[in-house]
Design brief:
Layout lengths: L14 H15 L1 H5 L4 H20 L5 E6 L5 E5 L16 H7 L23 H6 L1 E10 L2 E8 L2 E2 L4 E5 L4 E8 L11 H14 L4 E6 L6 E6 L4 H8 L11 E7 L2 E9 L6 E6 L2 E2 L5 H20 L12 H4 L3 E8 L5 E2 L5 E2 L2 H21 L1 H35 L19 E6 L1 H10 L5 E6 L11 H6 L1 H10 L16 E5 L4 H17 L1 H5 L3 E4 L4 E5 L2 E5 L2 H11 L6 E4 L8 H9 L6 E6 L4 H12 L3 H10 L7 E3 L1
Parallel strand pairs: 1-8, 12-14, 17-18, 17-19, 19-20
Antiparallel strand pairs: 1-2, 2-7, 3-4, 3-7, 4-5, 4-6, 8-9, 10-11, 11-14, 12-13, 15-16, 20-24, 21-22, 21-23, 24-25
Helix pairs in contact: 3-6, 8-10, 10-11, 12-18, 19-20
Bound molecules: ligand TSJ.
The site of ligand TSJ has 15 residues, from α3, β2 and β7.
């Protein structure tokens, strides 16, 4: 801000204040630079930004409860029971510390200091950014027996901090209304806030976070409070799984200025669900702390396996990947000055974190395995099986690679491909059942639309190892048709179709098949979903005929509208479609396939919370019935985090 230092003093404003106004004006001009986007994602970041400041107070040891409320007017109130933002006059700036916090960019951490800060992390841009992007913001500070108040409008001070009464409690209350001039979306989503606040509570053991929705008709409230912290997080990740042993393995310790906490437990599945955090901020791309964890895990288990003679001298070491099969883990480190690296700044760079996590996990895991030999044996046995399956899968993959190299692209026999060879123009319909596949083949626009009929249900990839998944004919047909390869081999530039359209019956079975396919895509080709290539076709539920007119309804409301429009009488003929197979080719084209008239739902995913998304698929496709029933009751849609827009 040094270029602003020369700003002329102007009338009533001091030079300082002009500097402040210009600072926040920059935020309003380019909000994306500060909060990533002005979509729903950016909107929700405003809440996290404020909550993070209260969590810092909890980490410093002064706050036990944070209360977050969505008010009826879509404003947000965050209340904590911390010390209250200092109200003294900041000597350098000549205004109260409260005003500094809300009007100066990156003011967070300028006073107080010390400790580990959540705010000012990844997107942590400070409360002043929230202020700049709010139509209005009000703060109440209660401390030293008094109640202080200040209001801002679009970041501008309306009046300075003043005493408005007495108080016998301590804490900070912030209420703000996001600015409709800035945000494309200004309606908060309860479930989005709920997920992040739950995560925050897991990561800050003992802290109570309450979420209230006070909007008319959808009033609800939820409290998150985990004395076990990340141990309970791992329990939550495994809640729909069969666990291999009852214990949650837990390591905790401090090396230098790095505080390390790790919790883990294996389930009988095949996915790795490890999530790492730095100062409560998620690091989806891992980094030094995650590397340290992996090193220690691999070493401790191999040492144990050798000592216990579970691995013979002539046998190879277990690979890290095999030891992590079915592992759910949380790796949480706290350090004073985290460095974020990588394109999206989602990877920890501090080298001291690697050694710290490695040392703490190696020491404590070794002790755990000595004291719990049967748990160790169970894990090693699973890893050995994983290793064998991986060898088999590698052979199967090498075989398909060689085959395609020899024979060129050998497309699946059932595929009716399109003739246009420019992927940008092309789409592929994955169709449930041969009969619907037949109609679709007749109906399609041959140049640009390909049809791949699948027979019956595809394999549930949540319940099978890679070798079995790759042996499944339906899975292989999809992989070869799409052209991209999977997992580490995935290459989006090889994608043969711009749109992958899942077309299933509009009933429970159809929804189940669609979910199986989405699970496969999510686990093996997530980029296709991230980059918006995956769609769900929307076949109609009803056909209405009257005289010579035909109408289609895609839901009950539409059916009702049509009936009102044409008049309810006995000459109406209403047909409820039970499946795609009941439509002839022409009807299928008109209602579901014709790009001019159809509606498609694009599948998207909430990348902010990968743990929650993984759990969603576990719950939907896993073994335990109870969490699934609960989930389906809570979510009218069959997949909540896979948002179908
Ligand atoms: F950032 C914010 F202003 F938006 C905000 C800050 C919002 C909310 C809901 C809470 C807070 C907040 C800040 N809660 N508690 C604090 N604590 C301090 O700012 C504080 C208090 C005392 C001392 C001290 O050294 O005595 C230091 C600090 C940083």
């Amino acid at each position: 801000m040094s270029d602003l230092e020369n700003t002329q003093n102007n009338g009533d404003y001091s030079g300082e204040q002009i500097q402040i106004l210009e600072g926040l004006e920059a935020v309003r001009k380019r909000p994306g630079m500060y909060i990533g986007s002005t979509s729903a994602r950016g909107l929700h970041h405003l809440v996290y930004e404020i909550v993070d400041n209260a969590v810092d107070e909890a980490l410093a040891g002064y706050c036990t409860t944070i209360d977050v409320t969505i008010n009826p007017d879509n404003s947000i109130t965050v209340i904590d029971d911390g010390r209250g933002i200092p109200v003294d006059i900041n000597k350098k700036k000549g205004i109260s510390s409260v005003e500094v916090v809300f009007t100066i960019l990156h003011a967070g951490g300028k006073f107080g200091g010390g400790g580990y800060k959540v705010s000012g992390g990844l997107h942590g841009v400070g409360a002043s950014v929230v202020n700049a992007l709010s139509e209005w913001l009000e703060v109440v500070v209660e401390r030293d027996g008094k109640k202080y108040f200040q209001r801002y409008e679009r970041g501008k001070v309306i009046e300075h901090l003043k005493v408005i009464g007495d108080s016998d409690r301590r804490g900070t209350t912030v209420t703000f209304l996001p600015d409709k001039e800035i945000f494309e979306e200004t309606v908060f989503e309860y479930s989005t806030l709920k997920q992040r606040l739950r995560e925050m509570a897991f990561l800050t053991k003992g802290l109570k976070i309450i979420l209230n929705d006070k909007r008319e008709g959808i009033e609800q409230t939820k409290e998150f409070h985990y004395e076990g912290g990340i141990k309970e997080y791992v329990q939550y990740l495994n809640r729909s799984q069969v666990c291999l042993y009852p214990d949650i393995i837990y390591c905790e310790g401090q090396k230098g200025n790095v505080y390390v906490e790790v919790a883990m437990q294996h389930n009988d599945g095949y996915n790795e669900s490890c999530y790492s955090f730095v100062n409560n901020i998620t690091t989806p791309e891992g980094g030094t702390h995650y590397t340290g964890f992996k090193n220690a895990l691999t070493k401790a288990f191999n040492d144990y396996a050798r000592n216990m003679k579970l691995l013979k001298d002539n046998e190879e070491n277990l690979s890290g990947e095999d030891i992590r099969e079915g592992l759910s883990a949380i790796i949480s480190v706290k350090l004073p000055e985290p460095q974020f690296e990588g394109q999206t700044k989602q990877k920890l760079g501090n080298s001291e974190a690697r050694g710290a996590v490695d040392a703490v996990v190696n020491e404590q895991l070794t002790i755990f395995l000595e004291q719990n030999p049967s748990v160790g044996k169970t894990i090693v046995e699973k890893a050995v099986l994983a290793q064998r399956a991986r060898d088999a899968a590698r052979k199967a993959r090498d075989l398909t690679r060689r085959k395609s190299a020899l024979e060129g692209m050998s497309l699946p026999g059932k595929l009716a491909d399109c003739s246009d060879k420019d992927p940008k123009n092309c789409e592929i319909f994955i169709v449930e059942g041969d009969s619907a596949g037949g109609s679709a083949k007749t109906a399609r626009h041959r140049a640009t639309q390909a049809i791949l009929p699948l027979r019956g249900k595809i394999i549930n990839v949540e319940k099978a190892r890679l070798d079995k998944i790759l042996a499944n004919a339906e899975i292989r047909a999809m992989i070869t048709a799409f052209g991209t390869g999977i997992s580490d081999d995935f290459d989006i530039s090889k994608l043969r179709y711009d749109k992958i359209i899942i077309m299933t019956d509009a009933d429970v079975d159809g929804a189940h098949i669609a979910t199986l396919m989405l699970t496969f895509l999510y686990r093996f080709m997530p980029e296709l979903i991230k980059q918006g290539h995956v769609y769900l076709a929307q076949p109609p539920l009803y056909k209405v005929e009257k005289n010579k007119g035909v109408w289609y309804a895609y839901n009950d409301d539409q059916l009702n509208d049509i009936m009102v429009q044409i008049g309810r009488d006995s000459s109406n003929k209403v047909q409820r479609y039970k499946g795609l197979g009941e439509m002839d080719a022409e009807q299928l084209w008109e209602t579901t396939m014709d790009p001019q008239t159809r509606t498609l739902k694009k599948v998207s995913m909430d990348e902010d919370n990968k743990a929650e998304l993984d759990v969603t698929f576990n719950v939907l496709m896993g073994d335990n019935v109870e969490p699934r029933r609960e989930f389906i009751e809570l979510n009218a849609k069959y997949a909540k985090n896979i948002d179908i827009a």
